[in-house]
Specification:
Layout: E1 2-4, H1 13-20, H2 34-43, H3 53-59, E2 63-72, E3 117-127, E4 133-137, H4 138-141, E5 146-150, E6 156-158, E7 160-165, E8 170-174, E9 197-202, E10 210-221, E11 231-234, E12 246-248, E13 254-262, E14 272-276, H5 277-290, E15 296-297, E16 300-303, H6 307-312, E17 325-330, H7 335-339, E18 346-350, E19 353-354, H8 358-366, E20 373-380, E21 383-390, E22 392-393, E23 416-418, E24 423-427, H9 430-435, E25 445-450, H10 455-459, E26 466-470, E27 473-474, H11 478-490, E28 495-502, E29 505-512, E30 522-523
Parallel strand pairs: 1-13
Antiparallel strand pairs: 2-3, 2-5, 3-4, 4-8, 5-6, 7-8, 9-10, 9-12, 10-11, 11-14, 12-13, 13-14, 15-22, 16-17, 17-18, 18-19, 18-20, 20-21, 23-24, 23-30, 24-25, 25-26, 26-27, 26-28, 28-29
């Protein structure tokens, strides 16, 4: 079970102690007591706590324990100079003399080659087909040499890894039991609601056949674990060893795979995360059919929208942080480029499904079959537009697609500064390109200085950032950049949106300004 550690925990000891000290006179309840009638009327409005025993008896045979063995190579260390000439290599402990004519390490056996040690890890899984197909987490079986699956009745079988998908942390195993096996049904996670009862099953800490219950705490959680995070959060206790086990609804359908916890100690504190079943269906189907997952590729780099960027781009948004995905960069010759999308556009829907964040966009596009079309709704200049994009297959290294194209004849250009923002800009010379480790076809201008406490500094701009555009306008020289910034200030938007590239990552930075009065610049 992957855990995300956090600091700080509130203690209830004082509160509970004070409660224990309160003396209460116990009195019998009488039928004439009107408060009893009131209590009964309130209780009638609530659903009683359910009994899960029948469901557990039905589902438990389909939940399995996954035992993984890995081999760790105890290769000896090398000296600081890189040579294998230390005494450990000669089979002796440090400082022990080597006696000529005797075998290395005699008589202690230090010279014997160290054996590889078997390391065992445990997780959980569940059967989704009577033929022995099992779903678990990728991190449970990662780097496995052998995998063994143990059923609830104690029978165990060697398992074959059919396929894994690290981006969603899912894996599919297969066992040959020689008989039909009980299995569970995958439900629809889109129907899951906050507050509904859920049941987690698995093998926490290697303890088999463990059941815990709780409720759905939140939906669509992004915990920074992967590019397609849309976890179901639950307070059902989940611990190490629960990874890969099912999270079920009251109908016994799997609505998630238990995957991670947030904990200051490594144990459950009531914050667990499960991969939603709608994602599981698509990934597992492809892993079974092809051993790998094929995803759609649009060719955009997107980010959240800050209020400053919404102001600078004139976006009619009441809640910028939850109203779309801002395109920060377009990959050359990508489906997005061919469809006419541009940096500064805000994608608000894909195939009619609302896009609230870059994570929503990534998941929605990934779920589109390559060569199929995606109907995209976006905002440009405050106006809503629609375009149909022919999605392509995601390349093995999609980040490599985002290289700035075009020619930059900047070696003869002169530096320039924008005193209102506190920026000094320089042309992208071959020397600067090498220093910043930029591709040869990169274009833009380099931020070589940011004045302390300036508007640019307060917005987070840094020396070495590559400025590639102001709003939707590309810049190829310091003068172009200054002119574009001045034009953006004079537009009266109250903010300027700068497009930069930092360590290979394209992003917008919004800078609040005071209209067009401070748009002066001077050349250096």
């Amino acid at each position: 079970m992957k855990s995300i550690h956090s600091r700080g925990a509130a203690s209830l000891c004082a509160l509970l102690g004070a409660t224990a000290l309160v003396a209460v006179n116990a009195l019998p309840a009488h039928a004439a007591d009107t408060s009893l009638d009131a209590t009964q009327s309130v209780q009638q409005g609530f659903t009683p706590v359910p009994d899960f025993s029948a469901l557990v008896k039905k589902i438990m045979p389909a939940v399995v324990s996954v035992d993984v063995k890995l081999k760790v190579d105890n290769a000896s260390d090398t000296d600081s100079d890189g040579d294998n000439d230390n005494q450990a290599q000669n089979g002796l402990p440090p400082g022990f003399p080597q006696i000529p004519g005797l075998p290395p390490g005699f008589p202690f056996g230090f010279g014997q080659p160290q054996q590889q040690q078997a390391v065992e890890a445990k997780g959980s899984g569940f059967i989704i087909n009577s033929n022995g197909t099992i779903v678990t987490n990728n991190h449970v079986v990662k780097d496995a040499k052998t995998v063994t699956v143990t059923l609830s009745d104690g029978d165990n079988f060697p398992a074959k890894i059919i396929g894994t998908d690290p981006k969603t942390d899912l894996a599919v195993l297969k066992i040959e039991a020689g008989k039909p096996l009980p299995y569970v049904e995958l439900g629809n996670s889109k129907d899951v609601e906050d507050g509904q009862w859920v049941i987690a099953m698995g093998n926490p800490f290697g303890l088999g056949n463990t059941v815990t219950t709780g409720i759905v705490s939140a939906l669509g959680r992004d915990i920074g674990d992967g590019p397609y995070d849309r976890f179901i959060q639950t307070d059902a206790p989940i611990n190490e060893g629960n990874s890969g086990g099912p999270l079920l609804n009251q109908q016994g359908q799997v609505i998630g795979v238990n995957t991670a916890i947030l904990s200051p100690t490594g144990g459950s504190v009531g914050i667990g995360f499960a991969i939603p079943s709608d994602m599981i269906k698509r990934v597992v189907t492809q892993l079974i059919a092809h051993g790998k997952v094929t995803r759609g590729f649009l060719g955009v780099s997107a980010q959240m929208i800050t209020p400053q960027m919404a102001q600078a781009l004139k976006l009619p948004m009441s809640n910028p942080n939850n109203d779309g995905a801002l395109i920060a960069a377009i990959a050359p010759n990508s489906p997005a480029a061919k469809a006419g999308l541009k940096p500064g556009d805000v994608i608000t829907a894909v195939n009619g499904q609302q896009v609230k964040s870059p994570g929503d966009l990534a998941s929605d596009i990934a779920n589109v079959d390559p060569s199929a079309k995606a109907d995209i709704t976006y905002l440009r200049g405050g106006a809503t537009q629609d375009v149909s994009v022919a999605v392509e297959e995601m390349p093995n290294n999609p980040d490599a697609s985002f290289q700035q194209g075009g020619q930059n004849g900047g070696s003869s250009q002169q530096p320039a500064s924008h005193s209102a923002l506190g920026l000094t800009l320089a042309p992208l010379t071959p020397d600067l390109r090498n220093q910043l480790n930029l591709p040869q076809d990169a274009t833009g201008v380099v931020i070589v200085d940011v004045k302390p406490n300036s508007l640019a500094g307060q917005a987070g701009l840094q020396q070495g950032d590559l400025l590639v555009g102001v709003g939707p306008t590309d810049v190829n020289s310091p003068d172009d950049a200054v002119a574009a910034i001045n034009a953006a200030q004079k537009s009266g938007a109250g903010a300027v949106a700068l497009r930069i590239v930092r360590q290979g990552q394209a992003l917008f930075v919004g800078i609040a300004v005071n209209g067009g009065n401070n748009s002066d610049s001077d050349g250096n």
